[in-house]
Each structure stands twice: as C-alpha cells, then as structure tokens.
Amino acid sequence: xxxxxxxxxxxxxxxxxxxxxxxxxxxxxxxxxxxxxxxxxxxxxxxxxxxxxxxxxxxxxxxxxxxxxxxxxxxxxxxxxxxxxxxxxxxxxxxxxxxxxxxxxxxxxxxxxxxxxxxxxxxxxxxxxxxxxxxxxxxxxxxxxxxxx
Length: 149
Description:
The protein is α+β, with helices and mostly antiparallel strands. It has a domain at 54-147. The protein contains 4 helices and 2 strands. The chain has helices at residues 2-25, 35-52, 54-75, 117-148, and strands spanning 80-93, 98-111. Helix 2 (35-52) packs antiparallel against helix 4 (117-148) and helix 3 packs antiparallel against helix 4 (117-148). The longest helix has 32 residues, at 117-148. 9% of the residues are buried. The model is unreliable at 1-16 (pLDDT under 50).
C-alpha cells in the first residue's frame, strides 16, 4: 500500500515537469515597457522611499517632536488659569444644642505676565529648533531621493 500512495505523486510530478519543459521551448514574447508604466513605478518607488526609509521617518519624527516642544514653550507665554473649590460641613454638638455650619468657597485666578524673559527665550529657542529640524527632515528626504536614483 505504501507504493500505491507514492505512485500518483510521481506521475503528477512528471506531468508538471513535462509542461515546464514545453513552456521553456516556446519563445518568450517581447516585453514592452511604456512610459506611463515606468513613471508609475518611479512614483511608487518615490513614495516607498518617503514612507519606509528609516532616515526619512526618523527625521520627520524629530521635526514633529520639535513642533510639540515649540507648542509647550508657547504655553509659557499664554495666560495661566487656576480654579479651586472647597466645601466644608461642620457639626457642633453641645449637651443642649446641635449646630451645623456649611461653608463653600470657590476661586478662579488668571495670571498673565507682561514680560517673562525666561519663557520668551525658551519659545525663541524652540522656534529655531523647529525650523532647524524641519530643514533636516527636508534634507533627509532629498538624500533618500538621490539614493533612489
């Protein structure tokens, strides 16, 4: 019975190899490349280089991090708002009397510095860093495009 199981496999392999030999003897059709197919492939390679190149990705992520840092530094220049609230209940018992006092207090505090040198310098530094990282990301994209060519 073992022989019967291998026989169909051997026959099938023989038919497949005979078909492959028949295909190999036929002349191959000439390949025609059109300009539009070439440009689509080139655009696909360009997108792939932009989306998958680790140098480009890391440069763009560093640029995005710099943008986030700039927004944080801008927060130091904006008004600061603080809100507080409290509620107290006091129970006072004597032998003859029982008194309950309720107390609630709320506060809202808005602070805006007219000139905060430290915050302004931090914002200016973050702004220049953002511009620098943006240029580095563009340079990394250009390098990846040149490496692609």
